[in-house]
Amino acid sequence: xxxxxxxxxxxxxxxxxxxxxxxxxxxxxxxxxxxxxxxxxxxxxxxxxxxxxxxxxxxxxxxxxxxxxxxxxxxxxxxxxxxxxxxxxxxxxxxxxxxxxxxxxxxxxxxxxxxxxxxxxxxxxxxxxxxxxxxxxxxxxxxxxxxxxxxxxxxxxxxxxxxxxxxxxxxxxxxxxxxxxxxxxxxxxxxxxxxxxxxxxxxxxxxxxxxxxxxxxxxxxxxxxxxxxxxxxxxxxxxxxxxxxxxxxxxxxxxxxxxxxxxxxxxxxxxxxxxxxxxxxxxxxxxxxxxxxxxxxxxxxxxxxxxxxxxxxxxxxxxxxxxxxxxxxxxxxxxxxxxxxxxxxxxxxxxxxxxxxxxxxxxxxxxxxxxxxxxxxxxxxxxxxxxxxxxxxxxxxxxxxxxxxxxxxxxxxxxxxxxxxxxxxxxxxxxxxxxxxxxxxxxxxxxxxxxxxxxxxxxxxxxxxxxxxxxx
Length: 472
Description:
Blueprint: H1 3-8, E1 15-23, H2 36-46, E2 76-86, H3 88-94, H4 96-103, E3 115-119, H5 121-136, H6 150-162, H7 166-178, H8 183-192, H9 195-200, H10 202-219, H11 222-225, H12 229-232, H13 236-244, H14 253-267, H15 271-281, H16 309-322, E4 336-343, E5 352-353, E6 357-359, E7 362-371, E8 378-385, E9 397-406, E10 411-422, H17 423-426, E11 432-435, H18 443-446, E12 459-468
Parallel strand pairs: 1-3
Antiparallel strand pairs: 1-2, 4-12, 5-7, 6-7, 7-8, 8-11, 9-10, 9-12
Helix pairs in contact: 2-6, 3-4, 5-6, 6-7, 8-10
């Protein structure tokens, strides 16, 4: 049964809301369909009157999920409409905007005339849900199920803000917070809410921050995730969110560019459109992080880079010439780390520590120590992290390889085959992982082993660690 029919049965209804439906012109569509509803809604909100008591103006984002050259589609008002009888006092008690329209002497306050509201299809559903909430104090049961679409919940937040119904905003936020999120939920929240909303409501900002963190955590391993179907489904705004992040894990910026071109090719079939897309995303790339061979690579010569090639070259040359400090242009986080150091094995068996490096937000080093629990004592090599397991990223797995340099060949010999280590298990006790008998020799024999001693009498060890995706 329609909402309007339910309200018509209420004897105390004294006013009518007349919803006029705003439609998109035929043939206009967005290449990233997931953002179309929100762009239409934000356009309407952005065009709303700023007069006291009228729906608040909300800035819209042209870039989120839209083709670089696509103009804003013009909207038109359809002659079809829906009339909803309401009780003015009940509605005004919950919404400051509707109260002003009904009672503050505006033309809409004429009791003999319907209050005309122009809405999109998405706003129509959201507006009726808001009216239902005003009368019943609760959301529809279907919105509190796993099958509810996050897009619809976001449209409810936008309408709640537009008509200033804080209790409705709170109910929708509670519904979003309590549901079990999927990747698509986080992606929708990450770039669908205007800044004016996040600035005004701390709870909304916290929700958006959580969603953005979720998206970044999901796709920060560039090599492993940027070819997935989930990544290719991301919108324009979500791609920009990732490119701006300092959390991306990749060794060279050209890897990001390669994956980005695949995403662009998925959404834009025309070469000129792909060129414009690259030009708009290029400011979020980091030229100083490109590898030395980038300017001579086939990637650099691709036609998609025609509009930015000279700028890339100038930026790289300028940074190299100026020797700009890395703190002004932070690099991406590497998905791997390498620690190399030489230690002396002495008769006292003193523990030797390598230099430390920062990786995954923590300090890492390896130590070479005499293992007295073995008989005779052996050479132990252990990788240490300066954090408890609870401080490391949940569920993280690290592939660790231990190597030693051989002489006179100067080649690296793997001590043991690489292993994937669950940080929460292996680093839980003493923050370390390694081997008690790294060289397969007693300590005293290792001190004299010409195979491992460099000209200065030291042994050179290398530890390689790489963050890997946990097997499903």
